[in-house]
Design brief:
Strands 1, 2, 3, 4, 9, 10, 11, 12, 13 and 14 form a ten-stranded antiparallel sheet that branches. Strands 5-8 form a two-stranded antiparallel ribbon. A two-stranded antiparallel sheet has the order 6-7. A hairpin with a 2-residue loop joins strand 11 and strand 12. The radius of gyration is 20 Å and the shape is globular. The relative contact order is 0.17. It has two domains: 228 residues, 3-Layer(aba) Sandwich (Beta-lactamase); 95 residues, no CATH class. The protein is built from ten helices and 14 strands. By secondary structure, it is α+β, with helices and mostly antiparallel strands. The N terminus is likely disordered. The chain starts with a strand and ends in a 9-residue tail after the last helix.
């Protein structure tokens, strides 16, 4: 297996040799084809590493500048942009979205299914970012392929990709802003994230990571042709490390907006994150203050207040975990549907005991050691 390591300085590179070795060991045990990760300390990127294969069959090594699919970590990046709009005075987190739209939401063809249901008028940007709107997760899961409420708005956390994309729609229709272009202008370019985009770019093709299912079956990297705030970000570990550092340090935001991201805006009482509308609760969640922040999940662990965001599909498994004290993070990107096999021990090796609610995130307790 090939490896590529970049660090802030030669001295720091030497400090992380043991962590790289542990990552390589876990990858082999967990049968993970490719892993890219970065460590942030005191709000600065101190180590970036890529190991394994971007494409196993072609023996193409994963590099720190290889394009990987961020999946739902896109939501955290989008929330960073939304908070910038809040700082600009263009968006109020608690103002109903109807105040921003030129016409009622059901008058737009994409949302016509809500005609006659006045509950949409209670939706706010905060409810959409905290998955507390009650809206369906994905309309294609619906037996009739309709967009509808599955719960009363504001009653409980229930993951909704549709809700995040609705906020994108409100910004584009109501404020006249192109979210993909604006995220590039306001986040990616200033941070030097030159190989990141919310929509497919042709220059990504020569150096990107393809994906692998749990059984090892290959699937080609998807070329996403439209911006989806809920999950269309293509990026690299070099780039995403810069965004994580900005998020944990508050770069680009006022102190008030930074605090909005990580305050517990809405309590999470569910036993697991998925399926989102399974009404089974875990009273122990309150012990760690498990709650929705804006585009992230927050909790209180052994090292204090923390936030994280995962990103998953059948060929992708990613995690961003940050601890506010010391402005510390680890970002993990894999081109495997089962990257979670190695996340708990690798996060612990990099950051120590974080108290991450793995069982809630993945619907089951994860092994301390890879299988």
């Amino acid at each position: 297996m090939a490896a590529c390591v970049a660090a802030a300085s030669p001295a720091l590179s030497a400090d992380y040799k043991a962590l790289d070795a542990e990552a390589a060991r876990l990858m082999a045990v967990g049968k993970i084809p490719g892993l890219a990760y970065a460590v942030i300390e005191h709000g600065k990127v101190v180590h970036v590493s890529a190991q394994g294969w971007a494409n196993v069959e072609q023996k193409r090594p994963l590099r720190t500048d290889t394009i990987m699919y961020a999946a739902s970590i896109s939501k955290a990046a989008f929330a960073q942009y939304v908070l910038m709009l809040v700082d600009d005075g263009k968006l109020d987190l608690d103002r109903p979205i109807k105040a921003y739209l030129p016409k009622p939401l059901p008058d737009y063809p994409r949302y016509a299914d809500l005609a006659g249901d006045a509950r949409w008028e209670t939706i706010t940007p905060r409810r959409l970012l905290t998955h507390s709107s009650g809206l369906a997760d994905q309309r294609f899961y619906d037996p009739e392929n309709k967009f509808r409420f599955n719960l009363e708005p504001g009653t409980r956390y229930a993951y909704s990709n549709e809700g995040i994309n609705l906020l994108q729609f409100v910004i584009e229709q109501g404020l006249g802003l192109n979210v993909g272009d604006e995220m590039n202008r306001r986040i990616f370019v200033p941070l030097g994230m030159t190989r990141s985009s919310m929509i497919w770019r042709l220059d990504f093709r020569p150096n990107l990571a393809d994906g692998y299912h749990e059984d090892g079956k290959f699937e080609e990297h998807d070329e996403r042709g439209s911006v989806k705030a809920a999950g269309s970000l293509d990026t690299t570990i070099d780039d995403l490390a810069k965004l994580a550092a900005a998020m944990v340090s508050g770069q680009g935001l006022s102190a008030k907006a930074r605090a909005e991201r990580t305050k517990p805006s809405f309590p999470i009482v569910s036993k697991t994150q998925f399926p989102p509308f399974l009404i089974v609760d875990n009273p122990d969640n309150v012990k760690i203050g498990l709650a929705a922040g804006l585009g992230v999940v927050v909790f209180d662990g052994p090292q204090g207040h923390a936030f994280y965001k995962g990103g998953h599909n059948d060929i992708t498994d990613n995690q961003l975990v940050c601890i506010e004290r010391g402005e510390r993070c680890i970002v993990l990107l894999t081109n495997s549907g089962v990257g979670q096999r190695i996340f708990p021990p690798l996060v612990a090796a990099a950051l120590g005991d974080t108290g991450m609610p793995w069982a809630w995130e993945y619907g089951r307790a994860l092994p301390v050691e890879a299988p």
